[in-house]
Amino acid sequence: MTASEVRALFAVASRPEVVSLAGGMPNLAALPLDSIAGEVAGLITGEGLVALQYGSAHGVPALREQICDVMALEGVSGHPDDIVVTVGSQMALDIVTRIFCDPGDVVIAEGPSYVGALGTFASYQAQVVHVEMDSEGLVPDALRQALAAAASQGQRVKFLYTIPNFHNPAGVTLAVSRRAEILEICRQAGVLVIEDNPYGLLGFDGQTYPALRSMDPDNVIYLGSFSKTFASGLRVGWALAPHAVREKLVLAAEAAALCPPTLNQMIVSRYMATHDWKGQIKSFQQMYRERRDALLSGLEQHMPAGCTWTKPEGGFFVWMTVPEGIDTKAMQPRAVTARVAYVPGTGFYADRFGTRQMRLSFCYPTPERIREGVRRLAVVLEQELEL
Ligand code: PMP
């Protein structure tokens, strides 16, 4: 295991004078805290002896039913019994990798991919093979080639790990027209699909896409989370697995944590029952859209020629490529001195690719701060180009 570059950056990036386009923390300012506080107090007075007690490793039954309502928004018809509630989807990633991967097994992931997933795969000594994306997400032919190459080298590919919607860090979405093809390629190769979908409900126009899980329920494990649609600090996520896998996941979850936190699950469940959670998600969409617009218009206005970037339709992130000759990791200390932070691209690859890339997140700072951050970043890039 190695230290995550993203985490190391947090300390500097959180200094108040630095505009951080680095972190991926959801912006919770719009949550109705007083009314949530009232519900939590009611929960403890009314059902405290259950809420403060151990629970089932599976998760609280009422919450698992509500999770089915959430997934139905993307066409998934799961059964509550096939859901395993986890400590964030990060834990779901951990137990899925634990039950499937032996050291040396291959996991296919988009390049770039989510840094937390790469950390998990590394901790089980799985080998990550990256497959390229374009503006429409994972490229089917590149996936075919990667599978063929792995097969010809006698490698065991355990699963494809994919973030189809509003990708972290790439900011792209898998085209609907590619979804069935990708599923078919995996099915033919006998490779399971892990669909990681924490941002799927954060489309800026309220748009949703059919989940891979809805198209091939027997070969897809779907990972979901309340971190971006409600409250990341509660650490409530889930896995929806094919029936045969579900039991193994419960055993692995039990071994890891006995059960997910009962109180937190009940808070989520009560919140969903008593609040307009869909309306809340709409207000998150609008807030993030405004921030995305601030970032994109700032980039358009200030970035030197030769920089290119993705244009996300949802989620938190833009992925930028800078002109040849600039190394985003080497440049990072100079950016921090200029009071702007980003995450260098290499952290999102298992193979140290990404030296000319960076992730810019627009989820947390205000639009004004984002515009200021982009101005500062542009100055640093201009200076690098003059060196
Ligand atoms: N997957 C992706 C793609 C993410 O971006 C994140 C959080 N940044 C997670 C999983 C983990 O989310 P959580 O554990 O908070 O549910």
From TrEMBL:
Cofactor(s) the protein requires to work: pyridoxal 5'-phosphate
InterPro entries, per database record: Aminotransferase_I/II_large (IPR004839), Class-I_PLP-dep_aminotransf (IPR050859), PyrdxlP-dep_Trfase (IPR015424), PyrdxlP-dep_Trfase_major (IPR015421), PyrdxlP-dep_Trfase_small (IPR015422)
Family annotation (Gene3D superfamilies): Aspartate Aminotransferase, domain 1 (3.90.1150.10), Type I PLP-dependent aspartate aminotransferase-like (Major domain) (3.40.640.10)
Keywords assigned: Aminotransferase, DNA-binding, Pyridoxal phosphate, Transferase
A molecular-function term among this protein's GO annotations: DNA binding
Domain Aminotransferase class I/classII large positions: 51-377
Pfam families given in the database record: Aminotran_1_2
Protein name from the UniProt record: DNA-binding transcriptional MocR family regulator
Provenance organism: Kibdelosporangium banguiense
